[in-house]
Amino acid sequence: MNFFERQARARSQSRRWLCVFLLAVIGVVLAVDCGVVIALTIFDERWARDGFLAQAQLYEPVLWAVSGVVLSAIALASFYKTMQLRSGGGAVALSMGAERVPANTGDDARKRLRNVVEEMAIAAGVPVPEVYVLEREPGINAFAAGHTPANAAIVVTRGMLDHLNRAELQGVIAHEFSHILNGDIRLNVRMLGLLFGIQSLAIAGRKAMHISVESDTGESRAVVIAWVGGFALLVIGWLGLLFGRMIQAAVSRHREWLADASAVQFTRDKEGLRNALVKIGALERGSRIVDTDAEAVAHMLFAANSRLATHPPLLERIRALDPLFQPAEFHAVRKTLVAKSVAPEPKRGSLQPSTASKLESLIATGIAVPEHIEQQVGNPGVEQLDWAHLLHVSLPETMLSAAADASAAAGLMFALALDDNAEASARQQKYIAAQLGERIANSVTYWVPQVRALNAAQRQPALLRLLPALRQQTHAEKLALLACLNALLQREGAVSLQNYTLRKLARLHLHEGVTPPPLPGRAQVQAYRDELTLLFAVLAQSGHSDLQQARQAYHAGLSQLFPQARTEFAQRRNWASPLDVALTKLDRLHPLAKEKVIRALAATIAHDGRLVIGEAELLRAISATLHCPLPPLLSKAHSG
Fold this sequence. Notes:
Layout: H1 3-43, H2 45-50, H3 52-58, H4 60-84, H5 89-95, E1 99-100, H6 108-124, E2 130-134, E3 142-145, E4 153-157, H7 158-163, H8 166-181, H9 184-214, H10 220-267, H11 270-282, H12 314-321, H13 328-336, H14 353-365, E5 367-368, H15 382-394, H16 399-402, H17 406-417, H18 422-436, H19 438-453, H20 456-464, H21 467-470, H22 475-491, H23 497-512, H24 529-543, H25 547-561, H26 576-586, H27 591-605, E6 610-611, H28 613-625, H29 636-639
Parallel strand pairs: 2-4
Antiparallel strand pairs: 1-2, 3-4, 5-6
Helix pairs in contact: 1-4, 1-9, 1-10, 1-27, 4-9, 6-8, 6-15, 8-10, 8-11, 9-10, 11-12, 11-13, 17-19, 17-23, 18-19, 18-22, 22-23, 23-28, 24-25, 24-26, 25-27, 27-28
């Protein structure tokens, strides 16, 4: 199953989960109504005297009112929790007491964690998630949370940092990246919000019981009624929550198998993930989270001892990776399991001569066009991971500060988004100064020379690293940055497509840090023929100075989408603002329709049989604006 099929399945699962949740809510409301009827039967003598049917009509408005109150309480509680988690995975992490790991951390174990996460994000073609550590948790565990890759967070326990080596850490983080790429994290956060609505009834019931016991009114009948009503709400709420978490567990188990398989594909290293699972089985605390409400997030964890079996049995997961595994190994590993010191990570910019030569060779010569590029979307492998490590250490040391400071990150983001043309860049910097002030403008000026020194392969990773720092800004500051980026997209009629897509990408990821995008759309390519015609025309003319070659590239791609109708190629001027609107609309395509579009885009860019690195990065940037993360494109000759 490829990325696009997984996205379609995730949307279907979301709809099914919503239906199940609604059924659970209806069941809870009916249970409360039954409790009210029982209470009235016990405490209202007229029920016994006149009979059930006679009184039922009299109390029908009461039951409707009770149903309305219960529904409103569940809806409001779910809405409150959903809004609380709206900012993404960081909100979930902080609610559990996790500590954020800054980009300039001096702790070797935390630095190793950040480097692994950043390299995997570069390899997957997604923004770098925020990174958090549960410092008081000695067990080995981790989870990913958020609505999209743009506001995702990865949380690990201190025990994971202490007991896992780099290969084992990579295996676990690759597992969590699978959840991010497959869209599991969005469903997980929605589950938290929806189930809190049902849980709120249990909380209200417990409060009512407490108040009735503490009451000194002397009205014993009222106290009994309040206590019994509270107890009923407590039981009904917890039963509804139990039902919801059983559904959680059923969905989670299947996704954990898929994430394990994806982690092995990502790293090509069964041993790393296998050994991490073995250490969980060997460690006295295992994967237990003891210092917070682990049951609420059990379905999100890398491993869990949940009573509802949210994960496949640990032994089964290990034997899926190593059929010859014997439980006796747990005892052998336990004897050697102690916290280990972590070796310092390599510094940025410390490229070995052979590594630097490989980087320059790929940039200069380009790559052979990979077959079935669309199948690589959301499916990074070890070649991309190796390449990401190469890019990661090649970024200048000075850019480390930008990923640690929000103002510096904003300056570098705009420096990456500026046009390469000196005159256009000067206009844009002047506009940024007028909109955002001298501090940001001076930061942009500082970063421009360093950005100009980056090659095409380094620019997108440099941008993706900035997102965690930009997410730390206030809501108002994010809106101001977005407004400025929007204006830059609209003000320039003529702009290079490479700079345009970086600018669009920055705005897209920053916007999703403020407002999560909707679920994948349903539209087919026929609904957006004009928008696709514009996209392919701009793409063709940007990659070819020769009009005839541009026309051939245009038809090579567009004919794959509309084979029966031939649309003539026409050069487009002042295309930036219309293309911005077009890409926003194209994001509403059905996942399987996006697969066709990515395949056709690759045909246009690579119609001459080769991709230079700029073209490859351009294709990846456009794919990212359609929420189709495309890993770095590498030929076999350069991936070793």
